[in-house]
Each structure stands twice: as C-alpha cells, then as structure tokens.
Input
Amino acid sequence: MPVLDIRSLTREFTRRGKPFAAVDHVDLSIDAGEFVAIVGRSGNGKTTLLNLITGLLRPTSGTVTVDGLDVASLDDRTASAMRNRTIGFVTQSATLLGNLTVLDNVILPAVMTNDGHGTAARNGDAATAPAKTADPDMPDVIAPGHDDDGDDPLAHRAHALLASLQVDDLAGCYPKELSGGEMRRVSIARALINRPKLLIADEPTGDLDADSTAVVMRLLRRTADDGTAVLMVTHDPDALAYVDRTLRMDRGQLAAA
Amino acid sequence: MPHITLGSLPFENLKRKPFRTAALVIVVTMLTVAFYGGALLATNLKAGLNSMQERMGADLMVVPQNTGTKAEALLTSGSSSTFYFTNDIEQAVAKADGVSQVTAQTYISSLAAACCDEKVQIIGFDPATDFVIEPWITSQYERTLKDGEVVAGANINVSANGTIKLYNHEFPVAAQLASTGTSLDNSVFVNESTIPAVVSYSAKTGHAAIPAEYADKAISAVLVKTGDADTKTVAANIADTVKADGVTGLGYVYPGGVTASTKASLDAIIGYAGLFLAVFWIMGLIVLLAVFASSMNERKREFAAYRIMGATRGMLVGVIVRESATVGLIGGLIGIGSASLAILPFNTLIGARLQLPYLQSGAFTVLALIAAGLAFAVATGLIASVAAAVRLSAPETYLTLREGE
Output
C-alpha cells in the first residue's frame, strides 16, 4: 500500500468572481522509501498540492489517502493527529516560533500528541542512527553529549537531529538569531522529530549554499532510505540528483518531468 | 532544563513578548482597580448607610432654630458641634399630640487644642429615657454608665491608661464601641448628669462650651418617637404646644428623611460611578480587542506553524484563551492588591473625606468582592480574545492564517 495516494485531486479558488483550479485532477502515488521531487514555476499549484495532502486545505474534488486514511473525510482532530504523527512538513516560509528556542521548536511537535509525552518521537532511535553510522561525506553528524538533558529522550533526539543538520550548537538560540539557511535546517529537524511516514518538504534548500544543500539532501535521502516516503518541491537542480523520481507541475496539472 | 510542553506554551509566548504582555496586564489592572475598588467603596458606603439607619431610633428631632444642619451632620458624618436650648423644652414637647416617647440629648464639641486629646463630639444622654443610644451602648457594655465615665466611639483614641483628656480633665473610658461608620464613631457618650461637669471643665479652660447658667438644664435636642402618627403633623403639634409656652422658632430634623436623602445621594454617586465604570470597561475592552486582533495578524505565521505541526483548532483556541486568561489573572491580582492597599488601611480617612456614612465591610464580603474582581478580570481577558478565538476555530483555519501570503 502506498504511503501517499492521490486520485484526481482538484482544488478550485475564486479570483475576481471567476473560479480557477490551482490543482487540477492530479494523480500521484508514493511508496514507503521513495523520494519524489516536484518541479515547476512559481504559482502553478505546488504549495497548494502539499497543503491538500496535509489536510490543511480541503479538496474541491478527488481524494488524498495518507497511510490508508482518506484525508478529506477526517475530522479536525484526526487530521491534526495525522499531520502530527504521520506527516512531517517543511514549509516554504520560515515558520519557526520566535518565542521558543531552537531546541523547543524542534521538540514542540512531539509534545502535541494526545499522550503529551511525544511517544512517536521516543519510539526507536532512528534520529540518532546517523550518529552511530558514520557517513564519510558528512562533516559531523555525531550528536555531542548534553549533560543537561538528563533522561529526557525528546531533548536527546532533538539534539541528534540538529547535529545531523550541523546546527546543534544553535539549540539554545532563538530563531531571530539564525540565518535563513539555519532556520531551514531547524525546520527540517522539527519535521523529523515524530518519525513521519511521509515527509513533505517545500523548497527545503531554497536558502542554502551548496555545502548546506548537500547536507540537507543527504539527510533527506537517508530518511527515504530508512523507509520514509519523501515528497519535495524544489527549484534547485542540484537537489534532483538525490531523488528517485521527478515530476513537473504546470498550471495545476502534474506530469512526469 | 525542562523542555517545552503544550501547557507551558502560552506562558512562553507571554514571557517572550514582555512589552505586549505588560501593556495588556496594565489595561486589565486599571479595569480591575476601577471595578473592585468601586465595588468595595460602594459596599462600604451601603454598609455605613445601613448602620446609620440601625442607629436612628427617633422619628423626629426637635432642635434649636437654625441648627438643623448641624443636627443632620451629627446623624451622618459631619464635624462635631455645640448647640443648645435656653428653655426647658423637653416637657413641653412631651405634651404635644402624637408624641409617644421623648428623650433629651446634649451635644458639646471638644476643642482641637492642647486641652483635649482630640476634637470629638460629646453626647450627653439620659439612660433612663433614652431609646436611641442606650440600646446600642447596652448591646456592647452591660454595666450602667457612672457619672464622670465615658463610653468612646470606635475612632476615638483612648490613652494607654484607659482615659481620654477633654477640657483638661482625664475621663475614664468605661468601654469602646464597635464601628458604625457614622459620626457616632467620633463621639464620646456621657450620662446627662456628667454634662454640668463637662461644662465646668470647659469654663476652666477659658472656652466655656455652654454658659454656666444653662449648664444644669441645657439640652441640644429632644428626640421624639411618634408611633403611628405622621411626623410632619406631630412637628406641627409640637410647634403649637410650645408656642403656648411662649417658645417659637424651633428646628425639626427628620432622621428618616436624612437617611432617605443620604441614600439618594449615595445611589446617585453609585449610579454615576457605575456608568463611569461601564464606559471605562468598554473602552478598556476595545483596547484589549484591538491589541488581540492586531497581535493575531502579526501571529498568523505562528498559528499556521502550529497547524502544520498538528495542532487542532481547539488547541489554537486553547493557546489564545490561556494566554488571555493568564493576562486577566495577573492583571486582576495586581489590580485587587493595589486597590486593597489603597482602600482597606484608610477607612477612617475615606469616611471623613466622603462626609458620608462609611463602614468597612466584613472579611467575607471583601473576600467575595476579591473573587468577583478576579472573575471579572479573567472574564475581561477572555472576552477580549474571543474574536481571535472565533477566527481560529473557523474551517480551513490555515487558509485564513495565510491570507495575503
């Protein structure tokens, strides 16, 4: 069963009294462990498609199925739980919370679950896996020791994710102290904290230099290799080298690139 | 260091926006001071009025001509004064139609000078006939007041050796009464037999309160109970009766009317204060609504982020509601604390400045007002955030939050 299955998905908006389809009869299926990229010009419906997949927008017609759940039929509570536990979302714009430190930003999705204890984030230890299996191409992915974490597995996992993206030294900083690229990497760490089955990334390398792009793309690639379905929207040609499949979106319609 | 939790999120948001939080807290504090402080003052004034009504056992006071205002001031909360009849009028008044009971009182004011501990109203009464003060004194002092002794009102400063100096004489204080919120609190009570001695002491200081020739018989007012008869008619009967004895030009005070006029004044004050408070509250609420609405616009991205991370609409509303409730609670506590500090320790001063019966309400009433003040403050905060909460709970919240992007 694919992690993401989209059938004839359409979302119309009204502009100056005339309806137009931002997403027009889109079909897409992504299996676990598959890394798919969508390219296309700005304003062609890519971000709208991602918002429909997460249930943040309701489709005009068609269906989105994530991990066996028909997203449009879910009530707010169930859809929110799905977004929290099944999907990780790296947004196009900076959405880190200015009132929280980098570490708390990464941890926050883990404490939003019903149990309030971040069970999803604690199960297994995939995030720290990169630290155990050294990657010669990655400069430093070993999470440094954090004596002040005590027995807090959420903090441990958050530090490990930040370390894998080379921003763990910024854990105590507030977002306004970060560059655009650093914020983007923290957003990725936040999206991965709950071990999502589907990771959605909207231009994850948009603000990054070549070295940082490589770090991020390798992490996304490994995330896919560990079994997560990854869907990425990008304008960055360098990022396409890491994906399994590339699609193009043009005027709301999706086709193979 | 403990990590973030959903419960601590609103507090982090408030902590990291100190200026906005302080501004909101100040607005709620001001509203709470107005609400709680106003309610406390109004309650104390009403308690004072009730106390005054309880202390007024007479239907009619017959006083010398042109001393009605002074007599009314004695009943409410005015300054002390001295006035007296030069005629023996009590018996004449008692004979009038419609009069069922009479008693005489004598009013002498001490001086704000070295001869006296303080300026107080000395009230001489006849324990045998009195029906106004005696029941009140008896309720708190079981023994009979001896000649030369005084019973002190609640606000009188009694010296450590249990005396009060008036006209260079140390009067033993037999008892001190509980607070009534009226001028009785600033009075000392002596029996009628002690009055000549008081006059004598005052004469020795060079400030004779009453000329020596009237010292034994001077009375300031005849207090009348009329039973079922109309007080105005009885007053007319008294005028006719005393006229036959050659006395004209009496003054009449109707304690019930004084109470009614005081109540009317009080109601007017409370009415205006209530109106002012309502306008003030609406203005404050508009400011709070504007601040919350404006902060909602600047926080759209933040709330969009919550949704992306899996927050339900209820969670977003919860964050806003807990933030505003916290602001309300903090503002309420500061407001109640400030108003309490400004009012509770200064009851006597407030009563004196208001020139109205003012009696501090009991602890239970104050606690109830504190609870109401806190509820008011928290409710104000919650009402102010309701518009933001409604917007957040709308369908496709995310679309609303990303409008214009």
In short: Chain B touches chain A at residues 1-6, 9, 12-13, 15-17, 301-302, 304-305, 307-315, 395-396, 398-399, 405 (CB under 8 Å). Chain B has a mean pLDDT of 83. Residues 60-253 of chain B form one domain. Chain B has two domains: 9-51+260-401, 60-253.
